[in-house]
Amino acid sequence: MGFFPPSPDRFTHAAMCAGFTRIFRRATPGACAILLTACVAQPLPPDLPRQVLGLPDTFSRSGSAYVGEQWWRSFDDPQLADLVELALHSSPDLQATYWRLKQADAAAEQARSGFWPRLTGALENTEQRRASSNGFDFSGAENEGNSWSGSLAAAYEVDLWGRVRSGARAAEAGRLAQEENLNTAALTLAAEVSGIWMQLEEQWGQARLLEGQLDTNRKTLRALELRFGSGVSAAADVLQQRQLVEQSTQELDQSRANLEILRAQLAALLGIAPQMLPAVALQYDALPTLPALPDTGIPAKLLLRRPDVKRAQRELLQGHYLARQAWAERLPSLSLSLFFSGGGTSLSDIAEDWLLNLSAAIEGVIFDGGALSAAKRQQQAVEQERWSVFRNAVTQALSEVEQALVNEEAIAARIGHLQERVQLADQITVRQRRAYGLGAVDFLNVLSATNNQQSLERQLLTARRELLENRVTLYRALSGGLQVQDLPQPVAEELEVYRSEDS
Fold first, then answer.
1. What CATH code would you report for 13-120+145-483?
2. Is residue 181 over pLDDT 90?
3. Reduced to 3 states, what is the DSSP secondary structure of residue 91?
């Protein structure tokens, strides 16, 4: 292909496919289908990323931990693992993507049918009666007639210029692109379920935290009311504490509402109603511990195995083959045909009294107003567009990994600062309460210290969840995807019950 620069010691992708093209000319139709799949599934040359895509030799940061295909199991959270497996089995969106893959399978098989001749047949029986002046007379043998006729027709296009081969390769590349699309959808679903589950665990923790803070604030309010009754505390102190109690109650109500919203979002990912959520989705625990940083490896190897990048590559190849097909459409086509026919008064006469026609025809466009030329230019533009899309997919993949690595370091540093601030806020709150009891400070100082302490505790919990969600993003960005054959295959539904006589 024109957009792949030549390499002195390795074939470019186009050169590899050109080798397959030479084999195709001498291969049987069955072998063509096998070679076709091998051509479009061939990986990119190892040195292509450095030469053309400008990928660095290493990522900015790296760990040493190994992460398997099912990266969500790295969090050691059995409930999360069960929910991801359930989503992969029952998500309607993922199932729709699977059936799009089956459509692409069928389309590729249709395109490969051009490697074979097309054979049709017909069998006809004719009963003849002759009219008389008194109506139909069935008594005389001369008025009766019964005949049989049969025919076979075969047609085959000799693929002189590779039009059929290019069309079949384009369809196979489209099928492989759809396969990677299914892989991408599965990874996205696993990441979304993981993110929602971690938000659920955080909101459950926030509710627990707010319940404790509300209990503390209510105890403080009761103590202030007793002091106010004894004439020790001012009415403003009581009112301020009541306001803090209301604030805590409001935040607790919102946290519980957030739990319901997240459950509804999780149910949508699982393809069920919120009321039908399994028990595993209603039992929450503390957020899991952050696993060790994974080995990010070499960008060229890791990024080019990502299913979204591989899909862009397959679509690029599809555009290349469609351009070659458009070029072949402009050239004359050679077709061979065979027609066999026979007939008589009995069925056996077809094989005894027959006629065989063999013909060869060359057909080409003499003038079409530039339609085929324009179609060729259109496909060439599509090819260039998909090359740009492919490069963009690689660049975005690199950016996602780098952003996740930088963000993880930043969030970890923020958590460290928050932990230190929480410790300081605890000490400040204790000292402010002690000073207020001695009458050394105003209650507003206690209120401000308490409010800040409780806010920092909630911020720390949120930061821990953000760190885990960012790790999900990193795992997804580095993942080579799941094996399509390992993904659950949905069972075809009987749709007749959904059809209406009036529709």
1. 1.20.1600.10
2. yes
3. coil
CA distance 234 to 446: 14
* For residue 313, pLDDT beyond 60: yes
The residues near 47 (Cβ < 8 Å, ≥ 6 apart) are 7, 10
- The whole-angstrom separation of Cα 306 and Cα 225 is 63
Longest dimension (CA), the chain: 134
3-state secondary structure 464-479: HHHHHHHHHHHHHHHC
**pLDDT at residue 376 in the model:** 86
Locate the domains of the chain by residue range: 13-120+145-483
Instruction: Give residue 326's pLDDT.
Output: 87
Rama region for 336: left / alpha / beta (φ>0; ψ in -120 to 50; rest): beta
233: tokens are: 């505390």
Give every CB contact of residue 218 below 8 A, 6+ residues apart in sequence: 245
Side-chain half-sphere CA neighbours of 90 within 13 A: 18
CA 234/CA 227 separation, integer angstroms: 8
Q: pLDDT tens for residues 379-411?
A: 889 889 988 998 898 889 999 999 999 999 999
| Residue type, position 255, single letter | S
CA–CA separation, 484 and 502 (whole Å): 39
- Return the closest-CA partner of residue 468 out of 188, 186, 72: 72
Please state, in angstroms and rounded to a whole number, the distance separating the CA atoms of residues 138 and 134: 11
Helix (H, G, I), strand (E, B) or coil at 283: coil
Q: Quick one: which of 494, 475, 490, 492 has its CA closest to 182?
A: 490
Cα dist from 256 to 56, 462, 466, whole Å = 46, 15, 19
Q: Which helix (H) or strand (E) holds 35?
A: helix 29-40
Query: What pLDDT score was predicted for residue 500?
Result: 62
Residue 22, judged by CB atoms within 10 A of its CB (0-12, 13-18, 19+), counts as exposed
At 87-146, the pLDDT tens digits run 999 999 999 999 999 999 999 999 999 899 999 999 998 887 766 555 555 555 555 678
Residue 429 in contact with residue 449, Cβ under 8 Å? yes
Encode 471-492: b = buried (16+ Cβ within 10 Å), e = exposed: bbbbbbbbbbbbeeeebeebee
Residues 6+ apart with CB under 8 A from 136: 129, 130
